[in-house]
Amino acid sequence: MKTLFQYTLIGAVALTGTACNDSSSKKPFNQLPGFIQGEVHSTQYDGVTDDLLTGGLGASGLASATAPAFDDPLNPTPEELRTLAIYNNYRALVDTVPGGGYGEFFGPQVDSSGEGLIAGNEYLAYMTVNGSDVPVTVMVQVPASFDPEQACMVTAPSSGSRGIYGAIGTAGEWGLKKGCAVVYTDKGTGTGSHNLATNSAQRIDGTLTQADEPVQFRADLDAQARADFDAAWPDRFAYKHAHSKANPEADWGRHVLQSIEFGFYVLNEEFGQETGNGRKVIKVKPKDTLVIASSVSNGGGASVRAAELDDKGLIDGVAVSEPNVNPQVDTSFTIRQGSGPELAEHSRSLLDYTTALAVYQGCANIAPEVRDVAPLNATFNNFTIAENICNSLANKGLVTGATTDDRASDALRILEEEVGIQPEQNLLAPVHFGLAVAQSISTTYANAYGQAGVEDRLCDISLAATGTGGAVTPITAAQEAALFSASNGIPPSAGVNLVYDGAEGQPTNLGASASPSTSQQDYGLDALLCLRSLALGTDAVTGSPLSGDAAEWSERIADGVEQIRASGNLRG
């Protein structure tokens, strides 16, 4: 059963849980928070044909290596998009392989009956934060087992740059199975993509539209500017995290706090006392509700930041895993692991670490200490390109050594001794490089921190589908139709790749690019060094101060990084 509620807000709107006194009854009434924009979409799931946790797939469907398919690949329904999004996001973060604990220690079927389907209601809406009009998606899932007399709530901001279902397996599952309401947000990242050639963008349910209507994200370009950009750089995409000009990470804590407030509004719409005039008296209150801020990675970091900002006492506890938090710099101590060297230059920003990995890891992959011990290294990386990267770095004076092995070992030494990457990471770092993890994070976050637009093409890098030889090509209709469900929000993902517009010859997929300064196919090292320079604030090759546009962008990025530094004060 589907319903659609349109709320008209008149005058000032109190936040959920704040008393709004009727002149006659003097009772606190439930009101939609003022940060909610437009419609609230509500869907009821019966827990038999479809559900909150598995999209109707059940535990066995989530474990299946065969993804759910669309009846019409060019026109998937919202229901099909949602199911595939849940499937992909769950499996991206939870190991469903037999023998890994799925079905025994974790999974929908554990401590549940049958396939672990969970009935309940799901609410979707857009919200904004003060100072920004960029839509942020927020969602509340209320399981049928929710007991307002034993009220609990779990936050589930998305990990990485994922969309609204990005933490369903890591925080949503636990909360829903415990009978808690789960509040999600995409934190202003998510899969919001804008095809600049066609003007197509994603509605809140993932379907595509070219019309002037609410969508997850469109670039800040008028029709003429978009046409001009497409003429110069055809078939490019803008993505919400990279190109919203909002530095969303600076507001991740506020996004989570607002998701909690929206959660209380939803709970009181469901369980508040009815009045004769259609209003609800607030029943579920923060002081009587256990609220756990949770999630993993970026989502965990967002929940930590929410606890830092929580001056209303909404959050009772924090339970996060591997939270990505950029701490305020404290040089009063050093770090040493085992018998390794003391590390004084710690507390670097994420961008600092990832740009270093983007520049040096491709060469370090073929160091003798890594090459033959890292699983899947050769599967994910082209060793000929790796050797080219080593040669290019050596020619620029960035690594030393007479042989390729020597140069690769020096690249590894720089990452470990100068940057602080731990030797244990050598097992997986090559796979991450092959999957363009550091390269994609460096590109997206440099744009986000600098509040760059897609038209700025920071470091001559853009986003597009690519074909033979890495050349830019229009995305296929089927790929674009599935982006909401298949993309992780940070290309390369689901058919959209990083493109080096300044590559020798023509714009080329970054991984296949030849740098103009080297004429070697070295993973577009010139572009990666540009990103490294912006992160450092000095020329990554010469060490000299930046000038002109590069200096301006570097200052903007540094300001953006300062906006996201965390204090670690979780208010008890």
What would you note in describing this structure?
The protein has 572 residues and is an alpha+beta fold. 33% of the residues lie in helices and 15% in strands. It folds into 2 domains: 2-9 and 30-190 and 246-325, no CATH class; 350-565, no CATH class. It has helices at 58-63, 78-93, 168-177, 223-232, 240-243, 252-271, 297-309, 350-364, 368-371, 377-380, 383-395, 404-419, 429-434, 437-449, 477-481, 483-486, 525-536, 548-563, and strands at residues 2-5, 36-45, 120-127, 136-143, 152-157, 181-185, 193-195, 201-202, 208-209, 237-239, 273-274, 280-281, 290-296, 317-321, 326-327, 461-466, 472-473, 497-500, 508-509, 565-566. It has an 8-stranded mixed β-sheet with strand order 1-2-3-4-6-5-13-14, sandwiched between helices. It is globular and about 80 Å long. Residues 1-25 have low confidence and may be disordered.
Layout: helices, strands, pairs:
Elements: E1 2-5, E2 36-45, H1 58-63, H2 78-93, E3 120-127, E4 136-143, E5 152-157, H3 168-177, E6 181-185, E7 193-195, E8 201-202, E9 208-209, H4 223-232, E10 237-239, H5 240-243, H6 252-271, E11 273-274, E12 280-281, E13 290-296, H7 297-309, E14 317-321, E15 326-327, H8 350-364, H9 368-371, H10 377-380, H11 383-395, H12 404-419, H13 429-434, H14 437-449, E16 461-466, E17 472-473, H15 477-481, H16 483-486, E18 497-500, E19 508-509, H17 525-536, H18 548-563, E20 565-566
